[in-house]
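User: Can you predict the 3D structure for this chain?
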Amino acid sequence: MSLNAVLGVDIGTSSSKGVLVGLDGTLLRSAVREHTVERPAPGHVEMDADVWWDEFVSLSRELTAPGDAAVVAVGLSGMGPCVLLTDADDTPLRPAVLYGVDTRSVAQIARLNEELGTEEIRRRCGCDLTSQAAGAKIAWIADEEPGLFARARRLYMPSSWLVRKLTGAYVLDHHSASQTTPLYDTNALQWYAPWAERIAPGIELPPLRWSGEAAGTVMAEAARRTGLPAGIPVITGTVDAWAEAVSVGAHQVGDLMLMYGTTMFLIHTVPGLLTDPALWSTVGALPGTRNLAGGMATSGAVTGWLRELFGDPDYAELLRLAEKSGPGANGLLMLPYFAGERTPVMDPRARGVLAGLSLSHTRGDLYRAALEATAYAVRHNIEALEAAGGDIRRVVAVGGGTQGGLWTRIVSDVTGRPQELRTTSIGASYGGALLAAQLVTDASIDAWNPVRHTVTPSPDATERYEELYDLYRALYPATARVTHALAARQER
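Assistant: Here is the predicted structure, written as structure tokens:
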């Protein structure tokens, strides 16, 4: 007799991940499909939506092929906020414009701030316009590709596009909508028609639901393509980082989730609406929750870049060398702003800096400096969260970067804060699977994914990092004029 199970799929920046999970939380199988983003111009980061659906189909078929488990529900998540515009027939008009790593909308942000008012945008939407704001990217398409925009009728993100392909439903979750600034009213929990009609004329914005609500059921044609049973429910889904938080139970007031991935994301659950121009204030993935969030433009992307430069050695070898280097990376200090920076710097023209190089430095020192740079940036974000009124009582880590132990240990040492690690750290796909399971059973995160280990900071290491953190904070203002000039040259 086959087990009942749920399928969870997440569409990420560098790969799509799928998991097949028993209704008791047991991970039965997992699979990955790697992909790359398109960078057609400086500051532009895009992806073809066909990749999302093709990889979902491939993952679904691989994970269900053995036939030993009956899939009873589907969970979805994806990177975001993204902007995929389609015509009236749901044909994509161009590749999707990705989230805050895409910095093309600087001029539109300035114009919308002037026209709508920075304070009024913050009051109504909960945060300022930044490179993360999907509404500003819609405005860019309208300005720069007016003929294409005139044909646009619908707005999708990765999870909602998969919902459409699977069920035929056109919906979006409240959290994703809250990142379409300035189209969504975070106080009223609905689209704000005056600004939506001004910025996205002609586009029928999707009806809104909560992430774990059923969007619909798998259609017969989608079942044929994917190998899934027709008629099973599919959740509405959400942005990957928020699904990651669900996967480790980090959605109680006071919780902070650290997502270790291609980029680093921080989600702090707060009791009510808090706003700060250096952070993002969003509606949570679950009803009744609010978040202050931060995100870096790069983290694992930098370590991956270094690995490629080094000739693709195993990550285990690089971690061994970085461990040998020791705290402070033998006098190296890095700014990890290789693709600009999001919170709390909010500078799309920031660039990476490696300070203190000498002929004696090794690959281990460089790799250690990259890990430490991310840790300093985490601390910078934590300080911004608390300055904005946050009250961080518990830190939970998740994502591929938690493997190996060194990166999480460095972050705890730099921040002086312990981090909980749960048994399963796969992340968003597992969180989507949990939400799907809750459609058909009373699954709970503590039963599915109990705490396995707590990373505790070393007082000696924390003390050593104090002076280095002060130097890190001084490095950006000391080099910004030069790096901005270089960024301008890169954009020519």
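The chain has two domains: 3-238, 249-424+458-492. The mean pLDDT is 96.
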